[in-house]
Design brief:
3 helices; Nucleotidyltransferase, domain 5; elongated; 5-stranded mixed sheet; alpha/beta
Length: 136
């Protein structure tokens, strides 16, 4: 508590009382000192060894490709017409309702062609499609 010296007028005090600030900072330092050792403790466990396994893949995904000339391939077999592609995709969907299509499109292919193929795949009833890109 700050006392005014006798003989001064009723002017506002221009001093800052830092005691509450120091109290808060000391509490924060104590909290830090208590919690820091708790964060660094760990339990050392020796894990058992296991043989590496692979995921069970029932059916390989359908590989649908569009090259720079616009040639469409399904599992590396050329498809001459979009109607044949749709019929083939519907047949694959009947065989495997969980069918997945991986779409490989050349960068020179017009986006409208890719969008048309995507719509064809969706119209055939296949809802799982992934775009495959090559990283250089």
């Amino acid at each position: 508590m700050a006392f005014k010296p006798q003989g001064e007028s009723e002017e506002a005090m221009s001093e800052i009382n830092v005691t509450p600030l120091v109290d808060v900072m000391l509490v924060l330092v104590i909290i830090l000192l208590v919690t820091a050792p708790l964060l660094t403790q760990s339990v050392h466990v020796t894990l058992p060894k296991a043989v590496e396994t692979t995921a069970d893949i029932k059916d390989a995904p359908l590989q649908l490709g569009i090259d720079a000339q616009g040639l469409i391939t399904l599992n590396k077999l050329p498809i001459a017409d979009l109607t044949i592609l749709e019929i083939t995709l519907k047949d694959e969907m009947v065989k495997n309702p969980e069918a997945v299509v991986h779409l490989y499109a050349d960068q020179a292919v017009v986006y409208a062609k890719v969008a048309e193929i995507m719509a064809m795949v969706q119209h055939a009833g296949i809802s799982k499609m992934a775009f495959v890109s090559v990283q250089q």
